[in-house]
Amino acid sequence: MNRAAGSHGSDSAEVLARLRELRELDAPTHGGRVLSYVYDAGLPELDALAGRAAELARPLNGLDPTTFPSVAAMERDLISFTRRALNGHRRRLGGPVVGSVTSGGTESCLLAVKAARDLWRRRHPDSRTVPRLVAPVTAHAAFQKAARMFDLEWCPVPCDTDGSVRATELIGHLDDDVALVVVSAPAYPSGAMDPIGSVSDAASARGIPCHVDACFGGLALPWWPGAPVWDFRLPGVTSISADLHKFGYAPKGVSVLLHRGRAPHRAQFFATTGWPGYPVVNPTLLGSRSISPIAAAWAITRRLGAEGYRELTASCERATHRLVRAVDGIPGLAVQGRPMGPVLSLVADESVPSVRRVDPHHLTDALTRLGFMIQHQPGHTQSNGVRLPHSAHLTITPVTEQTAREFIVALQSAADAVRGRRPASPVAALAAMRMLGYGVDGRVPGPSAAWAILRSVGVSKRAKPGDQAQLMALVERLPPPVAEALLCELLARIVEP
Ligand SMILES: Cc1ncc(COP(=O)(O)O)c(C=O)c1O
Fold first, then answer.
1. In the chain, fewer beta carbons within 10 Å around the N or the C end?
2. From the alpha carbon of 245, which atom of ligand 1 is closest?
3. Do the two domains 56-299 and 325-418 of this chain adopt the same fold?
4. Any idea where the domains of the chain sit in the sequence?
5. CA-based Rg of the chain, rounded to a whole angstrom?
């Protein structure tokens, strides 16, 4: 049979058999083996319910909720559920908290920025200034994307090496030309909770909107013991993004963006009657929209209710504490900073001699070989020259509690296997890049050169490199535009027929 879709179709059983075969190559989405990307409640019943709800909604088009009122009803319920979790349901200064359901965290972040930019332009109709987007350097990359897409100046504020940012540093950047300041609850790379209270107060005093990116923590922190007040109870918080496809446990494709007040919400809309087709009104970035993830999220939130989330969050919390204790007992490895929520970033313990350190890139590779996947995070040199260390990210979900013992044994063995190994250094690839002048005067490799460099560090088209430490070491040592060209090439190649 033709492997790709050929001129003749295949029968359904064959098609599905092929899909199953393809899926066997994937990292396991269930069972706690992958500690990033997937958020597994560990409840098969919930998956079955989500699947049935998604199937019921499959033929719908979210483009027009007046034609399909079930879409509006489900979105209303999701907005209401999230708003209550984030304490936006009470009468609050600035008008009612309202919002939209989007396709994911990135879309929610993009829309928060787009709305803030449009409002800034309205407040400064004669200004030719490019407005600024201010955030700690640890704010999700979606905000850099937003700045590029919507023509704002991206102003990343340096953090300390533990991943935390000082409120005074952020506040020092707030001026008239700032369209939006972003803080995270918590930041994905380090798990640090940004100083949301003081930054939102300072922003509000200057008339600057403050967005809390709770895409990661939005459906976990409301039930996390000891979390500080970070949501709509703070009067200076003007918008919040929270992903239902993360700790809401819904399948991918659903997030919520909430605004304090109707006018800021409406600023995210696009509408036109200026063409000969149907009047277009898009509250979000997409036109036609799949409602399957929304229906799945709707079903899950109804099935679990706030109490169900509280229980699942308690499981995440127990697992997180257990992993922290385990890491504390592993020589040469440390938890970065003081994370808040179901997330840990592992770094080499700089307080011990290098022969006893555990390099996070090597650790991640070794753990993959033992059947557990955590996520490489390259080191990052900030604008002030302070380097944030490379690290390994762990997202902790309820299923982590079920596999904690096995995971900890694997973590200890992986650490033992790599302890004292020097960080990877792709000397030959770096020398070749220098010789070819990449990074000088904005020179970046084209598709063929980029692919040749990737091949030299073990990347191939069909499989993830077994040794990602080399690739990560290359990425963190290259000028960002060169590294970005390489990574774009990697993603482009793997889907090239
Ligand atoms: C804090 C935060 N914001 C935004 C995003 C982007 O979300 P998505 O991958 O759903 O687009 C993420 C993803 O991990 C995140 O952790």
1. C
2. 10
3. no
4. 56-299, 325-418, 427-494
5. 23
Q: Which distant-in-sequence residues (6+ apart) come within 8 Å of 77 by Cβ? A: 298, 301, 302
Fold of 325-418: Aspartate Aminotransferase, domain 1 (3.90.1150)
Q: Residue 365 above 90 pLDDT? A: yes
Give, using CA atoms, the residue closest to atom 10 of ligand 1.
Answer: 105
Nearest residue to 189 via CA among 220, 226, 162 = 162
CA-nearest residue for atom 4, ligand 1, is 105
pLDDT exceeds 60 at position 3: no
Contact 267, 284 (CB under 8 A): no
Class assignment of domain 56-299? alpha beta
| pLDDT tens digits, one per residue of 104-113 | 999 999 999 9
Q: Report how far ligand 1's centroid is from the alpha carbon of 184 (Å).
A: 10
Pocket-forming residues, ligand 1, beta carbon under 6 Å = 104-106, 109, 140, 142, 184, 188, 213, 215-216, 243
Q: Which residue has the higher pLDDT, 469 or 259?
A: 259
Any bridge partners for residue 214, and if so which? 242
Q: Whose CA is nearest to atom 9 of ligand 1?
A: 105
- pLDDT at position 465 is 54
Probe residue for ligand 1, chosen from 103, 188, 285 as the CB with the greatest number of ligand atoms within 8 Å: 188
Quick one: which atom of ligand 1 is closest to the CA of 107?
A: 11
Cβ–Cβ under 8 Å, residues 136 and 163: no
Tokens coding 406: 């096995």
Per-residue pLDDT tens over the stretch 182-222? 999 999 999 999 999 999 999 999 999 999 999 999 999 99
Chain-centre distance for alpha carbon 432:
33
